[in-house]
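Database export, one record per block. Field names are fixed; values are copied verbatim from the stored entry.
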Amino acid sequence: MTMLRADQGGRSNPAGLRGEYRPHVRVGDGELLGVTLRHDDIAILAPGEPTQVSLHAVFPVNYGELQPGVAFDIVEGGTRVVGSGVVVDVQP
């Protein structure tokens, strides 16, 4: 996934990858799904730098739309798209 830079309408500050950053993800025009972003070796993700992260479900709702190969947007504040990615793998 990649966070957009501020000049692209995204974040001006890095996102924490130890569970403190809790955006939503959205597949197409679907429901907003609350997640935390995590990475074992990287503590923060700077805008504009692509990396693989783990998305962890926050709420007990259906996250079934997040399947391998599916593109998603990272959303803050309900409407502001600040990044995007593609699901690589799904763990039970």
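Remark 1: The first strand starts at residue 2 and ends at 3.
Remark 2: The chain has no helices and eight strands.
End of record.
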